[in-house]
Amino acid sequence: MITYNAIGQNKRKTVLIIGLFLIVVTALGYVFGRAYGQPGLVGFAVVFASVSALISYYFSDSITLAMSRARQIDRKDSPELFRAVENLTIAAGLPLPRIYIIEDSAINAFATGRNPKHAVVCVTTGALQRLDKTELEGVIAHELSHVGNYDILVMTLVVVLVGTITLLGDWFLRASFFGGHRKRDSEEGGNNQIFMIVGLVLAVLSPIIATLMQLAVSRQREYLADASGALITRYPEGLAKALEKIAQDQEPLEVANKATAHMYIANPFHLDSPQASRGKTLSWVAGLFNTHPPLTDRIKRLREMNL
After folding, report:
1. 188 is catalytic
2. How many helices (H) does the chain have, and how many strands (E)?
3. How many CA atoms lie within 13 A of 257 on its CB side?
4. Cα–Cα distance for residue pair 301/225, rounded to 1 Å
5. Catalytic one among 103, 143, 188, 237?
6. Neighbouring C-beta atoms of residue 300, cutoff 10 Å
7. CB–CB of 142/265 below 8 Å?
8. How far is the C-alpha of 106 from the C-alpha of 250, rounded, in Å?
9. With contact defined as beta carbons under 8 Å apart, do 168 and 25 qualify?
10. What are the angstrom distances between the C-alpha of 222 and each of 41, 225, 236?
11. pLDDT, tens digit, for every residue of 84-131?
């Protein structure tokens, strides 16, 4: 059930994402340091990036859960959910994760944590109330596949790192508008003006860079988690029916935001819903920035599985 090739890929991807993050933040610090004649900004950016990366690795799961307004539950709060998670973790050969619930009537779920020993599985109350037993097991098995394949490490890191890059870009952009120009511009032959222009471009592009980092969490991870989850339950139709209900549910998840959207089993904003798919051009453009593959494709692949 656990794909060891995927585990290796995700560990390498984690190093790549953190490295890219450090490069982007250092570049922002260098360019704005030259633009304002403050070379110390480079050191500040490097320290800030390093601390953010460490916080992301060790505490991003707690940050994500807080952002999602999730609360931890025990067995007496939801015996059926606990029983389902316990049975599926045994089948998957994983330790029992902590279990959280989001009070929201939308159907969705996600997993987080830096490794299986520190994993969390979180589901909405809507999923508990509106999915039957096999559908809920399909959703939980999908999330446990993310845990076993170490997808959770990559997806959780991206939440904090994307937010940090966007925040730094916004800070530098505001500073360029309200900080004024320095007298050293003329003394240095206009070099600072050049760096100011480059800095403005980087500040404007930083949200796009952050989005590209978010999309580095490949949509193939969702296909793989679907397939791995179906192998755990031995019943692909359970997850397929759950995804059908999610596709029909037009209620957005209120606690979701752009930083955490990629973590859920389905896009919490329903960009691939039938209504959002009207117009081929608009659908194609939306697909470029969608963190999930189309639900119709995922359902089709599940129903083509032969177990």
Report:
1. no
2. 12, 4
3. 12
4. 12
5. 143
6. 11
7. yes
8. 8
9. yes
10. 39, 5, 14
11. 999 999 999 999 999 999 999 999 999 999 889 999 999 999 999 999
